Ionic transporter y4hA (Nonomuraea aridisoli), 380 residues
Amino acid sequence: MAAKIVPIAAVLAFLGAWERSLPVIGEIVVVGLLGASVLAAVHHAEVVAHRVGEPFGSLILAVAVTVIEVGLIVTLMVSGGPGAATLARDTVFAAVMITCNGILGLSLLITALREGTAPFNAKGTGAALATVITLATLSLVLPTFTTSVPGPEFSGVQLAFAAVVSLALYVLFVFVQNVRHRDYFLPAPGPTVRPLRPSTAGGPGGVLVAERTEEDQEADTEVHAATPSLRTALTSLALLVTALVAVVGLAKVESKTIEAAVSGAGLPHAVVGVVIALLVLLPETLAAARNAQRRRTQISLNLALGSAMASIGLTIPTIAVASIWLDGPLLLGLGSVHIVLLGLTALVGTLTVIPGRATLLQAGVHLTLCASYLFLAAVP
């Protein structure tokens, strides 16, 4: 019942707090509803995923978060203000680094700590990573080096080309993921090896059997649980969208407080975008962590890389259309530091994907890259 009430209450709080100064108690309530909305979003995403199956389930959550995030970006760009010219670039790059290193690394870490290694399907994960790298390079790196327009931005024709290519490549990936090669994005086959212990069923000298944990029993219960009805799934889908609107909206409400805190700490303005991106990506982070805890690493990676891909593939076409009536420049090109971090992410991600399984070391490398990005955002 709480999962149904929280999204509606959070949206009402967002509408009531929009463009208003809140007292301390109001800030506390907003933060509490923000956290509760994240939990509600993850719950309803899992209900929908159980109904439609994978990889449709992870696709729905990734696209829903991104569509709402894109709406927030365009709204903030239309309102202008400091950083509007680089808002799309900063937000998209933050999403790429957080998902491809933070969420991915966290998922590998959780599984590797429990199982020793984190297995996944290298075919699908490699295809997703290649698509993310291509989209990021075409949209965020090339504008730094093109010469048609001074500065790190595309000309009108170049922006239109990048928008068409980004959308086409994203649609092609969705078709391959969910229709043509759906099996590439499902968990890799093969049972998980469990420690052996003597069976007590046959007396003291009983045979050795695989030890089962509470998590195993919970996973089995989940797999064999009744599929939600269509009505339940549609209700959860509506509440999922409502919860995500609340997450993004309340993050925007808190942005003034975040800006004041960042300014008071003497940090760059770009840190505001990073903090908001972290808040917006909380539902996907939590969903990926829960799937990793249940030894569904592939689903976690689908969420991480799918979110990065959707962030670029849907944002660039949208802002290309919005730029028709937006005033001021649209700076998409990354600086040298961020290009180095993106290149290192591409190289490390490729080496992680090739074997089809990862250890604590690979998880630690990705988390280190995410920490480096966050640190350099604060101390450029």
